[in-house]
Design goal:
This protein is an alpha/beta fold and 452 residues long. It contains 16 helices and 17 strands. It has a 9-stranded mixed sheet. β8 and β9 form a beta hairpin. The longest helix has 16 residues.
């Protein structure tokens, strides 16, 4: 496959690091940078609509309702809009987001919370209409889509935010201040893990490692299945995909790493000033062409950044995790999900400095990074010409790209070749330099009638 971004401006690792520094500092920018002179004044409430309001999108609307006018509700499954329309009786209900956008030019911003495979096309439609967009994590389904959305957001100068709300937290700011204070020295290893898709010993959040269902139940009258499928290859409706089970399917979701890593890697990327990796490799349970594996370990190698040393990042999912570390006091747990920083002088496990002797002797610095008013409120304020949101697409796009590289390393068709080599990433050409076949997975073909 040819370079999918060959005719556009490329985002190099240096660009990524520069933009990361800007976002981390929460620089205030002029209102015209975020949307032109037509932005509502700070005293006005922006008009906001939701696309994919049946699940997480409803939660997102609740976070902004005090600060905005909710004017539109859209979901391909109208059965999932009853509670929402009762809560927002003035909002019009739609099944096709394009119709909603056509009928409501007064919309200032849109929350996109569709399944992952529809994120990019839906968000791009919003951006090209000059409206701000809050898109749930992961930002997109492919590496190329993430790059394209970031580029479009800059071009159309709209306010953007990805739905990784932890970036706005006190914990994210405090870990940066502590890491930068040098308590554990320079960090060379990072371990991040989640138990998903597992929910418990005998249950899961969504199915993985399974085959496609063969029965074809009737499509419920409330669902526009063609719109739900969107750019993905058409297949019959089945409750194994909608409403809650789509995350584990290659065609629709991004698996455990896509679901969680945009949350859990955000703070480490800021604290360690990471950009694009030099290489990525993965091991997993058995893979098929329908769903992601039950568990995987993805290893990224990041180069030195200025006076910061190279970093090895290991991602674990499906219940796999690093060995218990010897510095952890008896009775304390590594946890079902966590983050472990390994430095020259010590470790930090889920914000706990180790060993105990180092923790007891350490006096943390005064707080100095600007604190956030709240993840959703950052975006609402940006719609009104305020500060740049912390996970705007210049930050969220590259972060999502790195996350989704892990899924490329898990592809069944590449598995045999990747047993013999690691994938090497060239941040200048935005390609895998040593395995051309892998570049085909940077993007995907869309079903006829759909385009980015």
């Amino acid at each position: 496959m040819s370079n999918p971004d060959s005719d556009t401006t490329r985002l190099t690792r240096r660009d990524f690091l520069a933009k990361s520094a800007i976002v981390s500092a929460f620089t205030i920018v002029p209102s015209h940078v975020l949307g032109g002179t037509d932005q509502p004044s700070p005293s006005d409430k922006p008009n906001i609509a939701g696309i994919g309001v049946g699940g997480q999108g409803f939660h997102d609307l609740k976070q902004v309702e005090e600060h905005a006018n909710i004017v539109g509700l859209c979901d391909v499954d109208l059965a999932r809009t009853k509670e929402q329309s009762e809560r927002y009786p003035k909002a019009k209900v739609y099944q096709d987001y394009r119709v909603m956008l056509d009928k409501h030019p007064e919309i200032d911003g849109v929350i996109v919370a569709t399944p992952d495979h529809n994120h990019a096309i839906t968000s791009m439609e919003v951006i090209r209409r000059g409206k701000g967009v809050f898109t749930e994590k992961p930002l997109t389904h492919t590496v190329y889509e993430a790059r394209a959305l970031a580029r479009a957001a800059r071009q159309y100068k709209v306010a953007t935010q990805m739905g990784n709300h932890g970036q706005a937290s006190e914990e994210t700011r405090r870990i940066q201040e502590i890491i930068w204070d040098g308590v554990i020295g320079k960090v060379t290893e990072l371990h991040v893990w989640t138990d998903r898709p597992n929910k418990g010993l005998s249950d899961t959040y969504w199915p993985q490692g399974v085959k496609r269902p063969t029965d074809t139940p009737a499509v419920p009258d409330s669902i526009n299945w063609d719109l739900w499928i969107g750019p993905a290859p058409m297949r019959p409706y089945h409750p194994s995909y909608h409403p809650h089970q789509w995350r584990g399917w290659w065609d629709f979701g991004t698996g455990a790493i896509g679901d969680i890593a945009c949350h859990s890697l955000d703070a480490p990327f800021r604290a360690l000033k990471l950009g694009y990796p030099e290489s990525v490799q993965a091991v997993s349970t058995l893979v098929n062409k329908e769903t992601y594996p039950l568990g995987s370990i993805v290893t990224y190698k990041f180069p030195a950044r200025g006076d910061l040393p190279p970093v090895t990042l290991k991602w674990y999912d499906g219940g796999m995790r690093p060995d218990r570390i010897e510095e952890l006091e008896e009775g304390l747990q590594m946890g079902a999900g966590g983050i472990l920083y390994v430095g020259e002088k010590g470790k930090i496990l889920n914000n706990l400095i180790l060993p105990e002797s180092l923790r007891n002797a350490y006096e943390p610095p005064e707080k100095y990074l600007p604190r956030s008013p709240g993840h959703h409120l950052e975006w609402v304020n940006a719609l009104k010409g305020g500060e740049t949101p912390g996970s705007n697409f210049d930050w969220a796009g590259p972060l999502t790209e790195v996350v989704l590289m892990g899924n490329i390393a898990l592809q069944l068709d590449l598995r045999e070749k990747l047993d013999r080599q690691v994938l090497k990433w060239d941040s200048i050409t935005q390609q895998f330099s040593n395995l051309p076949e892998a570049n085909a997975y940077l993007h995907k073909a869309y079903r006829e009638g759909w385009s980015l």
